[in-house]
Amino acid sequence: MHIMKRFYLIAILLLSVLGSFAQKREFRGAWIQAVNGQFQGLPTQVIQQKLSRQLDVLKADGVNAIIFQVRPECDALYKSDYEPWSRYLSGQQGKAPNPYWDPLQWMIDQCHRRGMELHAWINPFRAKTKGTSSLANGHVAVRHPDWTFPYGGQLILNPACKAAADYTCKVVDDIVSRYDIDGLHIDDYFYPYPVAGESIPDENQFRANPRGFKNIGDWRRDNVNRFIKQLDETIHKRKPWVKFGVSPFGIYRNQGSDPKNGSATNGLQNYDDLYADVLLWVNNGWVDYCVPQLYWNIGHRVADYKTLIKWWDKHAANRPLYIGESVTATANSTDIDNPNINQMPAKHQLHRSSRHVQGTVLWYAQAVEDNVGNYGSVLRTAYWKYPALQPLMPFIDSKRPKKPRKVKAVWTSDGYILFWSVPRGKQWGDVAKQYVVYRFAKGEKVNTEDPSKIVAITSDTFYKLPYDKGRNKYTYIVTALDRMSNESKAKKAKVKL
């Protein structure tokens, strides 16, 4: 038997042994990056076809949120008055796509049509990548070179520069104000990843204004902390419901640096090397969710996956915790207890046994579409077989909307349709954004906590019923979801199909 087919069958068997993994609420995300050049210079229609196909596959695999890169290097994959069009779209920085389109708006429309969230992913500090040879005249590094410093062949927006921080927050405020995004997402680039033999050129700036700090590391962390807090305030002042998420490098600190709070690892550190005090942001509520990038395998010598997921579960519980998962690393790593399968079942078991882990973000979307190691197939038929609502965020809003009105099955020229009316709501926290449709057979106990009974999560106010000559009776339940996925009370309809 082919190894992939054998893995698939064993994974399904494991699921039956371990019991149902179905979760009613779970963040199931996937990253779609631009900085790898996958869209660069392609015709508009080709990119749209590529993305449409990918979204269809991801939806079928159970994904309910897309994290889409729109600002790789102080540029834009959307219409911006502040930053030039990205070369990762048109092939030349500052050149608009032809035929014209707005990728961010298009992705919002496509994701919402499929019942998915769209989180706009930006890089807050990278002004130029190594591969970019020239910058457009309107680029911030051209207009304000004093806001940047060179490092490792890149240009970095200086975290110590208040004007640069204000500028990035202005860019984000523009995105949040003009686009109906569900989240604003930043990745793991704060101060640049260390390059051997190269120092960050900010010693003079530190000496000129240390702000009471005796250590340059503490000063740099404070620079980043100030920015994160400012960005959080900027987002929620404009739209309180837009979720602010961060995806840091997978190690906070090693035990060698912090015996009390560090993990039993020996890799690069957020706190010491990138000057990112992620736990401070989580524990102070400056971010709404955290997605540490745990791209290693179970048993890794330097950064063991099992060690790290348990560490984050213990230390980062003050905000929803999702795990950044490498599809290829998982699919290509052999289970340490069973050489016939990869590590997907073992990692999912760790997710389920972790008290505070509420979701997964897949790196990267294309690997899921390619079905590396049958990863997508197992999601579709087992782990993510049933739809999932988004995790709750009561620190933003906990009040549930009113229930749908007038739920009724009606014969139409398009078939037998279940209709309902929009519930009343005036404030953003009261307005219905989506609806959940459940189905229960005659005599079956109505339990809306069972995700296997969900037949649709939709923004429509109707659902086409699978009519079968009136042979069977069913109870349909419809609930409303607000922007924060608070769920209303149920409205019931009995239907003969």
How do you describe this structure in short?
This protein is of the alpha/beta class and 497 residues long.
Protein described:
- This protein has helices at 3-18, 44-60, 87-90, 103-113, 140-143, 162-178, 203-208, 216-238, 270-274, 278-283, 305-315, 327-331, 344-353, 365-369, 375-383; strands at 27-32, 65-71, 117-122, 126-128, 148-151, 154-157, 183-186, 243-246, 289-290, 293-294, 321-326, 334-335, 338-342, 357-363, 405-412, 415-421, 434-441, 454-458, 462-464, 473-481, 491-496.
- The model has no long low-confidence stretch (mean pLDDT 95).
- The longest helix has 23 residues, at 216-238.
- It is globular.
- The protein has 497 residues and is an alpha/beta fold.
- The protein folds into two domains: 3-383, Glycosidases (TIM Barrel); 405-496, Sandwich (Immunoglobulin-like).
- A nine-stranded parallel β-sheet has the order 9-8-7-3-2-1-14-11-10. Strands 18-17-20-21 form a four-stranded antiparallel β-sheet, with no helix packed on it. Strands 4-6-5 form a three-stranded antiparallel β-sheet, with no helix packed on it.
- Helix 1 runs parallel beside helix 15 (375-383) and helix 6 packs parallel to helix 8.
- The two termini are 42 Å apart.
- It contains 15 helices and 21 strands.
- 30% of the residues lie in helices and 22% in strands.
